[in-house]
Structure to design on (117 residues):
């Protein structure tokens, strides 16, 4: 499958981290994701019911910002992938989480996971 929907730069403002100072206030975490989905039918019909509505997916992911028990970006990536794959048309997903300020002398740190049904 080569068809995909890609979203870049979704911002989740949430408490995330293992250090005490990281959990004192919410921080912005960047999420990029790719959803493998068959787009051939919607390419012919131009009807929303023949595709995966990325607005709906995005709204569901924004709710994860309220999760109080997420400590690592690896866990966040896993939760996002699970939520994406809960949509019927999603076949597989690649999720990248980027967190600024996580390492001294580095702009950011990121993890990327790939999951499929």
């Amino acid at each position: 499958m080569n068809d995909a929907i890609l979203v870049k730069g979704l911002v989740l403002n949430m408490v995330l981290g293992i250090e005490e100072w990281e959990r004192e206030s919410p921080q912005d975490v960047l999420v990029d994701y790719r959803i493998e989905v068959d787009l051939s039918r919607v390419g012919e019909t131009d009807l929303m019911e023949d595709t995966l509505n990325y607005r709906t997916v995005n709204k569901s992911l924004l709710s994860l910002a309220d999760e109080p028990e997420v400590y690592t970006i690896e866990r966040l990536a896993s939760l996002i992938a699970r939520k994406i794959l809960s949509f019927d048309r999603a076949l597989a997903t690649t999720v990248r989480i980027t967190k600024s300020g996580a390492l001294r002398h580095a702009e950011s740190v990121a993890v990327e996971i790939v999951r499929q049904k």
User: Anything to note?
Assistant: The CA atoms of residues 52 and 88 lie 8 Å apart. Residues 73-85 form the longest helix (13 residues). The chain has one domain: 4-116.
